[in-house]
Amino acid sequence: MAITADEVKHVAGLAKLAFTDQQLQKFTGQMDEIIKMVQQLSEVDTTDVPVTTHVTDAKNVMRADVAEKGTDRELLMKNVPDSQDGYIKVPAIIDESGEA
Amino acid sequence: MDYFKQDLTSLHELLVKKEISVTELVKETFATIKQRDQKLAAFLTLNEQTALEQAALLDQNGVDPENILAGIPLAIKDNIVTKDLRTTAASKILENFQPIYNATVMDKLAVKQVITVGKTNLDEFAMGGSTENSAFKITKNAWDQTKVPGGSSGGSAAAVASGEVIGALGSDTGGSIRQPAAFNGIVGVKPTYGRVSRFGLIAFASSMDQIGPLTRTVKDNALILNAISGVDPHDATSSTQSVPDFAAGLDGDIKGMRIAVPKEYLGKGIAADVREAIQNAINTFEKLGASVAEVSLPHSKYGVPVYYIIASSEASSNLQRFDGIRYGYRAQDVKNLEDVYVKSRSKAFGDEVKRRIMLGTFSLSAGTYDAFFKKAAQVRTLICRDFAKVYRDYDLILGPTAPTTAFGIGEDIDDPVTMYMNDILTIPVNLAGLPGMSLPAGFSNGLPVGLQLIANQFDEQTLYRAGYAFEQATDFHKQVPAIGGQN
Fold it and tell me: Which site from B129, B301, B305, B410 is most exposed, i.e. has the minimal number of CB atoms within 10 Å?
């Protein structure tokens, strides 16, 4: 299975990344190599083998539902790039330039 | 302070007897760092002012004779968050990030009155094996400044190996403590998954990430792991298993220990000089009274593809939080909210991070999930079973840490697959959540060779006992690199 530039572009969209055409070319080649490498897994028989997604023996970890003081609001805002009146400021969701 | 002439025990004694004050120790440590780091570039941020204030306070109150870590300056990998001390994960996206809380390990070290001297360089978000993926600087190997220090904890490893500090914390997701420890000729331990809290470790692959110590001696390593281990309400995957004293019972006696050497770990792809050093190590263990036998880990060869699918999938999910909204870099030339996400991430993530996010997103997306993520998670089970089978009959697994000694700076950076194959001996340990150690086992062309020991889950004691016995029987750990100012 070879991956195409269009597929890489689609995945980039899902991952909220954008590439220039030149980058896209480089990434498509490298992704293709990596995908070829990981595809050797198809030779392993995994019939009836369960998945392992974690390696701890812990099940659900419970704690008492006790209210605790949260983090100070001003402190939480310390690393916010842009704020106003104690709120995080972001651009409009709809394009501000007016172009559709 | 010449850290090559000290271990934690002797240094503690000097402090308790006031042969040196904490302030003097801290000042001398910064002087050494500033001089050697011109060649090494191990540190991203120094914590000089706060460190000196803490030292003055300790001198005023006296060094607790019962607390071996009191007043000891340590270095911290820059993906472990430190309150009010810049933490970047070596990424442009966190270039000016000032954490508002401490990682649990930092709180634990603070209780022990450890002094943080600074934050060390790494591959961006701990993704890499050479520290060349840092957005800020290229750290050099302590033994040869044309070679990589390994990674991703390359800054921590180089700082310890060059005598800038006596110990450091790193993190290990696929070998990121053990491989740089091997490349720099020091001791690095990745504890059992769950042994150390991950709270405040900037998440890369949450089912494998672990914090652990890098030191020049086995005992020093055990003493630091003692301080950072234990269950933490902030990390639900931290273990409730009791924490033994890892430094106890280090007496060099390993008679009757059953050691397994996987034949896959000495097969093709392992450089001849590395194989020879490991063979010598096997002979040493036999002389010490251990029994050594060959075993097979038949699925270990699939470790690299399994790891790159699972780690990248987890990373693609974990790194969604970097969106330019609440912290970190935000792109300015934006027309709408979507632009903030896409442009901030595209500008501020480096290429390796983007590759992993892409591979992870691809592996998890509809149409490829079964063939990629699910398949990898199934083969992971087979890798875990291989190990479990060996530990029914053996106490310890032994092999090299890396297939070669440190490679040249710039050599492999544009070839991701070759770079990934470098981790083939360390990755299976993370996939199975086992504890692993790398320690010095020889030199080839002036570069250190690392010996890897792997124990069963929560059996770090066996790692330390075996590592200590080997260290006492050899003198590789006593060698000093030229940058250390001697030899």
Answer: B410
